[in-house]
Amino acid sequence: MLNPRSSLLIAALALPAAAADKVDFNSQVKPILEAACTHCHGAEKDKGDFRLHTREDMVKGNENGPGLTPGDLKKSAIYTTLLLPHDDDMVMPPEKEGLLDKSQIEVIKAWVEQGADWPAGVTLGVKPRIDFVKHIQPILEQNCVSCHNPEKDKGDWNLSTRKHAFETGENAPNIVPFNLEKSAIYHLTTLAEDEDDLMPPKKSGGPLKKEEIAMLKGWIEQGAVWPDDIKLVAKEKSAVATNNPDTMELVKKIHAFIVQTSREKQESEMKNYDTKVPKTGAPYSMVAIKGGEFTLGSPAAEAGRADDEGPQVNVRIKPFWMGKYEVTWDEYEPFQLTSEGRNKDGSRKVWAATDKPEDLISQPTPPYQPMDFGMGRNGFPAICMTQHAANKYCQWLSAQTGHFYRLPTEAEWEYAARAGTKTAYFFGDDASKLKEYAWFFENAPNFQYSLVGKLKPNPWGLHDIYGNVCEWTLDQYLPDSFKTIASLGGDKWIPSKTPYPHVARGGHYDDDPEMCRSAARRASEPGWKQQDPQLPKSIWYLTDATWLGFRIVRPLEIPTVEEMFAAWNNGVAKE
Predict the structure, then answer these.
(1) Strand 320-323 with 553-555, pairing
(2) I want to staple 460 with a disulfide (CB 3.0 to 4.6 A). Which of 28, 42, 365, 419 is the partner?
(3) What is the pTM (predicted TM-score) of this model?
(4) How far is residue 524's CA from residue 485's CA, in Å, rounded to a whole number?
(5) Which residues, 6+ apart, have CB-to-CB distance to 121 below 8 Å?
């Protein structure tokens, strides 16, 4: 370790040093030495015939001279070897292990100048050395920067650069080198899962793993080294294998139950029915809709028509039941909010193969706030779910009831909304009558959604098919979807290949009348979950689509296992 070539640096040591705060050996010097030096110069190994795990050994040095001379930088190789060129064989620590940061070197320098205080009886051990780029940068970029960046500085804290990370924040500083107690970035990670101040919050993927917390702890104890040229950007957290039981094998079990349970075989046997969700007792109603042929899309002359509503095509629809109302919070909330610990993919953290099928289906992780946004729950339509979440609700309901439920195809939705009519609305072309049937911009109370079923239904008995909340369909959106739909048939859908866009229909409480027409289409987009604080953003919530819900259908014809699986897993969950 000791190097005669370090004499070239002695001149630099003679320069007067600025006054420095008293260096604490245990909290500042010891962590640096234990992480960077004692693995080669400690109790177990004496590289270069030099040990420094005790004060006596450090002072002794080796044949080249003392390792430490209190108050004398020139005669303290523990310091002079830190100043050698990076490619010098005697530089400490070697370049391949990572040179000390200038802030750490300053600590060693001040300690020696101040007399190298070393409490009696203190012996150095060996600790893992924390490298910012390798160990800390991924933790911060995957868990913190999405909420603490120049565009979104939650708590006025910007974590994108060293300067901002150390200086900004409502209670700055949040990072204090060598001081865990004053470093909020560390102690907030150690709070209980249900603590509001936990960082990152449970809703954003917290808490951190024990090993990640340990790395943050070691990093701060070793001086919170952060190279000046490193700028952080939010990145997606690596997916964790969850052994999710929601597989094709589970769908096979549900399919067998549906085949065994369903009684209706012919269209003539179909009747409207009122029933309840078995698991919760929440009521819902289904309307029987006969099969038939209709014209999908709008004519070129229709007022308010958009280009993606054509060209019109004839489509044959097979018989199905459709929800009389939009799915309400009474039905959906017990699916959304569960007491089970869940992975981000919605699988239960603890489960057994003997659990009921409905308990093995992926369900939403906890939302970051109530998803009704204060607009009401009992009897109001559920909102803000992704298409993936709506699909999984259908699977969950199917597993309990023995009936196959799914989202409607785009063709089925328009067929049901038109109810045998060819006009812009099922009541004609005069938009002034819309107030009798739909909640929209002109009549929605307080500019928000309303209780389901309070206005007139369409001719087939479906309430709020226009307005109130927009409704998911199964189809991937294409500007020219109708040509593909005509070739597939009305009970088939354009399968998902990308997360966006998908088709929503029916208009909502903040829409103008033309968006409530039977043929009007809406394409989903990333902006529908812009407020989501997570990275990657949640596969369950569309935080900005406070006007989007869904309605379920149950086809008379029971599909194959593969078709069921495709319907319930159609949404591309990952952004």
Answers:
(1) antiparallel
(2) 419
(3) 0.65
(4) 19
(5) none
